Amino acid sequence: MSQFYEIVVFTTQYVYSAQPVLESLDPFSAFIQYRLFRESARMHNGELVKDLAYLNRDLSKVIMLDTVKEHAALQPDNAIILPKWDGTPGDKGLVGLIPFLESIAIHKVPDVRPILSKYADQDIPTAYAAVEAEQKRLAIEEWNRSHPAGSSPGLGAFTLSSIFGAPGAPQQPHMPQSYLEQKRAEAQQIYVEEQRYFAEHAEEMRRLIEEDKQRQLKEMKGSLFGALGLQGPPKEKEGAGAPPPGVAGAPLGGGSTGQTPPVVGVAAGAGGKSA
Predict the structure, then answer these.
(1) For 16, 88, 178, 212, which has the most beta carbons within 10 A of its beta carbon?
(2) Predicted model pTM
(3) pLDDT of 203-255, one tens digit each?
(4) SS3 of 68, please?
(5) Is 228 helix (H, G, I), strand (E, B) or coil?
(6) CATH classification of 8-146+179-222 is 3.30.1490.100, yes or no?
(7) Residue 23 and residue 164: Cα distance in Å, rounded?
(8) Quick check: helix, strand or coil at residue 53?
C-alpha cells in the first residue's frame, strides 16, 4: 500500500513497547513513513484520542484504520473502525481492505470522507467486492454490445480445419483490462520486484543499519560524557609534557624517577570502559 499511500503508524502504545514491534514489521523502514506513539495522543472528554490534525496533512486525503471508535472521536468521518483481532490464525481483515483502498487511491478521489461515510457500519471488503463485481458485469455487457463476435478481422479462433486453409470460427475480440485492473497489475509487479530486492540485499542493509546504530550510540555517549564533564582534561601538545632534562622542575640529576605519574580526570564509562 505504500505505493498509493503515505503510511503513518499512530499507536497508543509507548515508544519503548511499540518500537520493537514496528522494527520487526518494517526492519528497513521502507514502508512506514512516520511513527507516532502515545506521547502524541491527547485526552478528549476523558478518552484517549488520536488527533489527525497532528499529521499536518489535508484531511480530505487521510484514512484512519483503528479498532477503537473513541480514538477517532475528533475526525470520525476519516475513520474505518475494524473489529479487533481475536487471535484467529489466517485472519484476512486487513488484506480484504486492499482492493477498496487501492480503488480510492487509483481513482484519485478528491475527498475520501463521503465514501467512507457511505460504507460506514458495513463490512467493507464484502460490500465493495459486490460493487466492483457489478461494475465489471456492466463493462462486459457494454463491450459485448459494441464488439460482437466476428466484428474484427484476423481474430478467428484456431481450429483443426484452419490448418488446411479453411477459415476459422469467428471469435469475439478480447476485452482489455480496465484502468483499475491495469494499475493494480502494475502495483503488484512493483511489489514483487521490491520484495526480490530486499531478499537479495537483506544482509547488506542490516549491516548498514547496525553500523549506523553503533555510530549514533558512540556519538550519544560522547555527547553525554561531554555534558557531564567526564572527558578529562584536553591532551597537551607533543613535547609540551614533562620539562626537558636540566630545566627547572625536572628531577635532580636530570634523569627519570622510574615512577608512573598518577592518572587524572578519567571516569568509568558504559560497560566498564574508560571514556
Answers:
(1) 178
(2) 0.68
(3) 998 888 888 888 888 887 766 556 665 555 555 555 555 554 444 444 444 44
(4) coil
(5) helix
(6) no
(7) 65
(8) helix
